[in-house]
Amino acid sequence: MLGGIADNIRQDFGPHGRGLFAIDPSQPVRIVVPDSLLFSIDDVVLVEGGLELAPSTGAPPRVAEFFATYQRTLSWSKGGRDEVMTFLELLNSLPTTVKKCLFEDFALQHLFAPFDETALMNPNGELLVCYSRADTWQRFVQYGFICEERSAYSLPIEIKLPTLRLSIGLDPSGELRDGDMFPQVTFSPGMIALSHLLLGDRKTPHMPRRIFIRLMQEVGVPDPANTFDRISHYNRKVFLKLLRIVEDQHGQAVLAMRRLTRLQLEALSFVMEGREL
To answer: Domain check: are 202 and 231 in the same one?
Structure first.
């Protein structure tokens, strides 16, 4: 036994492609993956078109065999590779002006690499991680499908404040306070970095602004409300630019990009003035 649990689940196809579904929806679903079966993308190699663990991982033979069998029978070789190829082909069919915007404003050059096998593994490690907190845009970049998400997060950005710089990343990790996820805050000379920043939330539109204001007050950054508005404006401006570029274009990829951008802008609009936490 390798220690994992998979109760009441089956693999099937849904609106977003392949996924896991309940065999009996009226019964609980339980999935547990032990640490011994979780690996970094750096531990994975391509062998004759299949995904296997590199010998350097030192994984026990039974674990390495399980991983290879899983990839061969359920994942990479059973639709995973084809889905990645379809996603990359969709992106590469976009008009040149749209690609240029995605390069310059969204830093997505890595998704337009040539279609060789070694380019199919995203450098952020999406092959092995499960779905986490993400917005519509991040979900598309990570997994290749478009869906409505509850929240909208800031794109990576670095802005200048009166006495220092503020950097915002895409790391979903943070600190849970009274049920709300606050981003991690790190300091370096002349710089404050947030692991992520929530900008819109369909269910609690007052929360994004309140979280940011409280964090900035805790670290002594003046005028946090104005800073939040600057960041929100930047994100809306970038997505509106993308929407403007695809407005008069045609094709399946362009239609997908329009819907993707609309859903992201909708989520970004769910923000309201919030009382102090």
So the answer is: yes
Q: Are residues 64 and 127 located together in one domain of the fold?
A: no
> What percent of the chain lies above the pLDDT cut of 90?
32
Sign of the Cα torsion 148, 149, 150, 151 reads: negative
Residues 265 and 129 in one domain: yes
From 28, 46, 78, the end of a domain falls on: 78
* CA-to-CA separations, 96 to 92, 112, 119, in angstroms, rounded: 9, 12, 21
Q: Which of 165, 163, 161, 132 is nearest to 149 (CA)?
A: 132
72-109: pLDDT as tens digits: 888 877 777 777 777 778 878 888 888 888 888 887 77
Residues 6+ apart with CB under 8 A from 22: 8, 9, 10, 29
CA distance 115 to 141: 17
Q: Rounded to an integer, what distance in angstroms lies between the CA atom of residue 168 and that of residue 160? A: 12
Q: Which residues constitute the domain of residue 22?
A: 5-78
Contact assessment for residue 202 and residue 150, using Cβ atoms and an 8 Å cutoff = yes
Instruction: Report if residue 87 sits inside a domain.
Output: no
Q: Which tokens sit at 261?
A: 């951008």
What are the tokens at 204? 């609690």
Two structure tokens written together for 271: 């923000």
Claim to verify: residue 22 and residue 149 sit in the same structural domain:
no
